[in-house]
Amino acid sequence: MKKLGLVLFLILLATSCIMYIPYDESRNRGARTYEPPPAPVAPAYGEISISYIYDYLGHYGYWIYYNPYGYVWIPRGVGRHWRPYTHGRWAWTDYGWTWISHDPWGWIPFHYGRWGWDNRLGWFWVPDVVWAPAWVIWRFGDLYLGWAPLPPGVDFVPGYGLRWGRRDLPHHYWIFIESHRFHSNQLRAWILPPERNITIINYTVVRDRYTVRDRNVVINDALSPQEIERLTRRPVTKVSVREVKKPEEAGGGIDEVRIYRPQIKQESTAPKTVLKREEAEQKINRLEENRRENVEVIHRQEGSLLERTQKLEIERLKRQAEEEARNAPPEERQKKLSEIQSRLEELKKKHEQEKQELQKRQAEEKKVIRKENLKRKADEEKR
């Protein structure tokens, strides 16, 4: 009996030590069935051509002709849950908030051009020749920080700023995290599911300012380091910048950011290989079938992040409500309590809707994966 009691005690001790570690999709990046061949070598001077961009990114994705933007690029093998400006981190530099991508091709589409969305193709990149530390706009509040890639058609005019007609974006463009996660080196592990965006947008305000230095250097400084320090409760340290002459040298360390930002020469040319839209869709779907994502783990992470942040919002609203009721005159206190209760009920309804939308999307993703697995099994049996 003593031995049995000791065994039970050890089991309980072990299970009590289990802790949740956010899923990082980058762990599965090595599971790709496709390994791109070496990309073309960039010239060892500060100018490249659109032809070079076409050739370089052609090793990491597909080019198609997409009206009205012309030739656009679609990254290959990034996974169903990928979004621009998620696989990397932020650093404060002489250029303002600078995106440091963990992707080998990230020095181009996160610093030049715009990102668009297509329901069948997913995210696509529209080339442009103006460099920036990151082409995003921001949203921030006490609980959350967010950013979104600028869509196609939004021009930057020195001395004026961003020029676009409707200053709003589809809610799924926004990437939100809890503010205190902003300094994480693996932001993707903390990005909230897009179903949370509609509610979070109402908790945040937008910033979309860019400035220009020395006539032609774009600075992403819409959020000051002081504001980030207040939101994250951590100091912001400026990271030094070193300009490099080769794309493979670009990247970031603890105290240095290496930037490759050549001038891009416009040409009237086309990519060597251009897929038809239908062919691109087939290739994307086929590659996603072969990508080994642990969808169950991703779904659990999304559910955990949704529940935790919803709980934070309820607790925050209750604290605010208690303070408002305490400070209200006695004759208005009951009215104030009724108003507060209505706000709580409204927030809970939004949360329930978010939860249902998340469960619906996850169920659809599982259904698609089951169909893909059955199709793959049938193909293997035919062989």
Give an overview of the whole structure:
There is one protein chain. With 383 residues, the protein is of the alpha+beta class. It folds into 2 domains: 42-256 and 269-290, no CATH class; 295-382. The chain has helices spanning 2-16, 50-58, 197-201, 225-232, 277-290, 295-327, 330-382; strands at 47-49, 61-66, 70-75, 88-93, 96-101, 114-118, 122-126, 136-140, 144-149, 155-157, 161-163, 175-178, 205-207, 211-213, 217-219, 240-243, 251-252, 256-259, 263-265. Helix 6 (295-327) runs antiparallel to helix 7 (330-382).
- How many individual helices? 7
Q: Rg, please?
A: 24 Å
Q: What percent of residues adopt helix (DSSP H or I)?
A: 25-40%
Say how many strands there are: 19
Could you tell me the strand content as a percent range?
15-25%
What is the string of helix and strand elements? HEHEEEEEEEEEEEHEEEHEEEEHHH
Assign an overall shape.
Answer: globular
Structural class: alpha+beta
Q: Major sheet: order of its strands? A: 12-9-8-13
